């Protein structure tokens, strides 16, 4: 009996020993990534200061992704030039009054490929300070945000007509020509500001991120469109993706129609 009591006492002593806190890798104070994988050295020498502001309406699921491009935009631009609001509907009661003012401002532009969107190159930059609204999430999440946010429907809407190939090669895009949030903002800012520094400088952190991931086991990702066309896609194709691919085919047949496939968040 005494042996049993002694054993129980020993277990109680062990149970009362506080657990060691998990060892956390030191984080960069600017990008909040582990120092070993920080991309801040690739940021512009000085934060870029556009005449307008980028306003990201971010789906909550996007914040959970470990490899995101929105933070690169946030720290690559001057303070106050990149605002981020989170939610599935905008504005809502959790947002400050400034967002409602921004969405109602006649100088605000929504980057969204609707039937009424005009090429962003047609916007006169002499119109004064602007707010460029981007929906940050996957394409289905962006569509859901748009349909749930009636305040967005009355805004002036713009689109990117020529986007090129994404440099975000470690993430699978739905179709050829889709861009990350950072790349979409860079293309838009370059057009609105008439300044190529946004392409030349803001894209460098993304290159560093991809190079590090590839050096540590990541692989280059082709788009779902590419994999399906080459019989390499391992899953069944859903109706939404099927429609998107048909739209891509139509675009190739008629390049004057540059909408949905040209932007991705």
UniProtKB/TrEMBL annotation:
Q: Which reaction does it catalyse?
A: a uridine in tRNA + S-adenosyl-L-methionine = a 3-[(3S)-3-amino-3-carboxypropyl]uridine in tRNA + S-methyl-5'-thioadenosine + H(+)
Which InterPro entries does the record match to this protein?
DTW, DTWD2/TAPT
For the biological process aspect of GO, one term held by this record is: tRNA processing
Write the record's keywords in alphabetical order, separated by commas.
S-adenosyl-L-methionine, Transferase, tRNA processing
Keyword check for Repeat: no
GO molecular-function term, one example from the UniProt record:
tRNA-uridine aminocarboxypropyltransferase activity
Residue limits of the DTW domain? 24-218
Q: What are its E.C. numbers?
A: 2.5.1.25
Entries under SMART domains matching the protein? DTW
One Pfam family name is DTW
Q: What domain of life?
A: Eukaryota
UniProt similarity note:
Belongs to the TDD superfamily. DTWD2 family.
UniProt-listed PANTHER family: TRNA-URIDINE AMINOCARBOXYPROPYLTRANSFERASE 2 (PTHR21392)
> This protein is called what?
tRNA-uridine aminocarboxypropyltransferase
